[in-house]
Amino acid sequence: MTALAAPPTAPEKGDPPQTPPSGRRIGKGGAGRTMKGGWLSYLILGFALLISAFPFYWTIVAASRSNADMAKVPPSLLPGPNLIKNFEQVLEEADIGKALLNSLIVSGSITIGTVLCCTLAGFAFAKLKFKGRNALLTLTIGTMMIPPQLGVIPLFMLIAELQWVNQLQAVILPGLVSAFGVFFMRQYLVQSLPDELIEAARVDGASTARIFWSIVIPIARPGMAVLGMLTFMTAWNDFFWPIIALSSQEPTVQVALRQLGGGYVNDQSVIMAGTLLGTLPVLLVFGLLGRQNVGGIMQGAVKG
Amino acid sequence: MSLTATAKAGPPSPAGTGPGPDDGRAAALRRTWRKASPYAYIAPFFTLFIAFGLFPLVYTAFVSLYRVELQTSGEMEWRGIANYTALFTDEFFWTSLRNTFTIGVLSTVPQLAMALGLAHLLNYKLRGRTFIRTAILLPYATSVAAATLVFAQLFGKDFGLINYVIGLVGFDPVDWQTGTVASQIAVSSIVVWRWTGYNALIYLAGMQSIPHELYEAAEMDGASRWRQFIHVTLPGLRPTIVFTVIISTIGATQLFGEPLLFEGSISGGISHQYQTLGLYMYEQGWGFFHLGRAAAIAWVMFVLIVVLVGVNALLVRRRARKEAGR
Questions:
Q1: How far apart are the C-alpha atoms of B326 and B314, rounded to whole Å?
Q2: Fewer CB atoms inside 10 Å of the end CB: C or N, chain A?
Q3: Where does the pLDDT of residue B326 fall: very low under 50, low under 70, confident under 90, or very high at 90 and above?
């Protein structure tokens, strides 16, 4: 017990959720790295993976069958032949095609804009000295925890005043605000951009703008990529604000899914086909870059 | 912010007299610009932040004191605290407050407990480590809407797969829609499914920052794996646990998409049995067009979050003090 009395104080000083410097490379050091997992660990993890994956599998099964199949007892557990037919039907009935295009435009613009704004601001907060820096940074971080959902009413009044309701910029512009992104890029640059490099460039007569383009951007690129992926996912999946600001005339995928679930399409397998179409793009991004996403979240991502 | 930048960069130019910029003036200009330019870097973010982030948050409190209707959102009529009194006399407000709390507990507690267990297992040396971590994060990449539509299907009363399995085991089918407890469990399960893997990875990151020596010392003292988990891992993980509890609490307080899409009704079931505060706010604002009252609900949610986070912090501090005193 004597040795065990010490631990509580030691690691408490660090704040793991926010980018522990050693956490940059996952899997280095740490507790259980020497302990091998037994068969029970694999069994439990296997079960967890099954539960994680089953709804995806079920979506495919349901989307490839007919509505009549869905009402059968016992239910069919294998994919059927109707996938293409259901896709066609949902494209026709719920305008998923337009929704996909809109979501691509919205999420793409938000991703590019957010990464740019946050890298600029993150660089200033990390490496430039100016009056009010700490106060502004505190303000930014302080609002990180406040859910944007709470400001939705004035935001709607503002958008209505600007006559932007039902237009994509109503979703894009508010989507660009990411206090988390600023904080993330600042942390990234504090760690990976040495002050000496900037000093050296200054001595050579480089302006701040020049330094930003030729030194900061290349170094920040991996961090920008992680932030970009997280932003894209969040933007693609954003639900509350889009269903308020947009309607079925100009839907994003989530707005279209809401319409689908709202009851005017009664065919369960068509609904599941729409769900599948709306989820595939983000799963694709995730599949391609999942490893980096895992790294990004472990470095201290905050719920979207 | 950009105003400051231009104001600061402004003065030097009219001060100069010569037609061409001489060296001294150029240097002075450059110096001023260097001082002002940081503001140019934060200007894009802060312009958007103030317009679409800060202003709406602050203005919500103001709007909650007025009568504002959706169709004529430009007209505001002073009501004082009438929006709040109307709220507190509406039984559905209290229903949704209670539901938010029960669904919050039903979703947060199992989610975090399972995440902790999974993180512990993930921390072992495992084959296919990256694959497992990625796969466990898959639900997090799914949208609320998509996940809820699939779960609504699985929880179907007559033809849902879950009721089929329950029937196989020999129990009666559960009415996942109309039963208060059953429907809340169903809605919570969506939250649990989407967030458990995410929290597990956060815990895993926390576990990996616990110094290895602590485990070696514990092992030398003959502590079993279980005791090591209780006496080394859990205390070392405390800041991470506090972080996830706070984040989940905030998420639970504003739960919205899951109850909305579970049956597609804005009142959260026939008898509001799983309507949350977030959904109640949406119903008041965009179902009944009372934006002012919706703003009052938003403000109540904000206060609720502040109180819950405060209580959390207080508990943690007291706990820490207790342990330090031991």
A1: 19
A2: N
A3: low
A153 chain-B contacts, CB cut-off 8 A: 56, 60, 63, 68, 285, 291, 294-295, 298
Contact B142 A15 (CB under 8 A): no
Dihedral through CA A161, CA B251, CA A231, CA A135, nearest 10?
80
The 10s digit of each residue's pLDDT in A122-170 is 999 999 999 999 999 999 988 888 888 889 999 999 999 999 999 999 9
- Tell me the nearest-neighbour CA distance from A105 into chain B, angstroms: 17
Contact B141 A283 (CB under 8 A): yes
Which segments of A115-162 are extended strands (E)?
none
* pLDDT tens digits, B24-41: 888 888 788 777 889 999
Residue numbers in chain A where pLDDT is lower than 70: 1-34, 263, 299-304
A133 found inside a domain: yes
Q: CB-side exposure of A213: number of CA atoms within 13 Å?
A: 4
Nearest-CB residue to B138 (from A52, A136, A157): A52
B10 and B132 both lie in a single domain: no
Structure tokens at B88: 């507190």
CB-based contact A265:A93 (threshold 8 Å): yes
Q: Is the dihedral of CA B21, B23, B27, B28 positive or negative?
A: negative
The C-alpha atoms of residue B262 and residue A59 are separated, in whole angstroms, by 16
Residues B76-86: tens digit of each pLDDT: 899 999 999 99
Q: What is the ipTM of this complex?
A: 0.86
Name the closest residue on chain B to residue A294, using Cα atoms.
B134
**Contact in structure between A148 and A81 (CB atoms under 8 Å):** no
Q: Which residue has the tokens 């994919």?
A: A79
The answer, for B16 touching chain A at a CB cutoff of 8 Å, is: no
**A3 and B217: CB-CB below 8 Å?**
yes
Tell if the CB–CB gap between A261 and B217 is shorter than 8 Å: no
- Tell me, yes or no, whether B126 and B15 share the same domain: no
A4/B59 CB distance under 8 A: no
- Taking 3-state DSSP, the helix, strand and coil percentages for chain B, each rounded to the nearest 5, stand at 75, 0, 25
- The pTM of this model reads 0.86
Number of domains within chain B: 2
Q: Is residue B158 part of a domain?
A: yes
Tell me whether residues A15 and B121 touch, CB distance under 8 A.
no
Amino acid identity, residue B128?
G
A199 within some domain: yes
Per-residue pLDDT band for B224 (boundaries 50, 70, 90) equals confident
- What is the CATH number for A259? 1.10.3720.10
Q: What's the N-to-C CA distance of chain B in angstroms?
A: 51
What is the span of the domain harbouring residue B7? 2-63
Q: Say whether residue B125 is in contact with chain A using an 8 A CB cutoff.
A: yes
* B104 in the same domain as B57: no
Token digits of residue B115: 């995440």
| Total domains present in chain A | 1
Q: Do B221 and A26 touch (CB under 8 A)?
A: no
What's residue B204's pLDDT?
Answer: 93
Domain extent, residue A217, equals: 90-298
